[in-house]
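pls read this stuff:
=====
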Amino acid sequence: MILFVNDLTVIDFSYLCNQRGPVGESWIVDVVLHGNLNEESMVLDFGLVKKQIKRIIDDSIDHKLAIPTGLNGRYELSNDRVEVEYEFNGHHFAMNAPKSSACFVTGDSVDIQSTIAFLKSIILPALPSNVKDIEFTLRPEHSRSFYYHYSHGLKKHDGNCQRIVHGHRSLIEIELDGISMPRLQKERADKWQDIYLGSEEDQVSAESLKYVVAKPEDYCFAYESTQGYFELAIAKERCDILPCDSTVECIADYLAKEVKKEYPDKKVKVKAYEGVGKGAISLA
């Protein structure tokens, strides 16, 4: 018997790529279970599928930084902390954070195939014995507009958004006087493709870092939040510093104000997404 659940959840996370650097991503998760009927004449109760499998996904990879074991760099776990440092296309990246901020995916890269293998390896053993196999489909949201991949951290967030490198694949919609502006959307998406959005409030000097060794061409960030102490150094060319927090509300407001500077006589509307099916709208 085969059981399926479409749109089970969305994985919002970042991963390290040997070519692109830290990449924010959002994948919709579909699940298919193969197995025998249990004493309730079910393969698995839909409630358990939604609760148990989603919980494991949330705990294992969602809102984390996924590090491929074949990364061209250095990473280690020690004293409940994770540290990683590497270079991609001549750019530097280094992070030190609580261990819960990262996960390790077997292979030279984090992609849909390696992530499916990662999920299957931890979820199938946790399911009842009558479930014989599990399949995952991971897919991005259908693009109705231009989009960008971004990573960030929200130190004021009580939940997992405080992790200093997690991210999203996000659509961007911009209107002037009620008319959609694809050119402006593309310009912003191109500028922020694979970007790290840092908050000016979290920026620190390289000398103040406790763990990470930064390079002269890096921006440095550090903060203490409820999950612990976080540090990051990342090449300036791959970072944009905002004069506000990097919540989607602040991102939408920031973009609306930037567009308004260019078009002061127009009514500006920015619809900024945070992953799939959610976000914020700002008017200027």
User: Anything to note?
Assistant: The chain has one domain: 2-283. The domain at 2-283 is CATH 3.30.479.10 (Tetrahydropterin Synthase; Chain A). The chain has a mean pLDDT of 96. The helical segments are 46-60, 112-123, 182-191, 248-262.
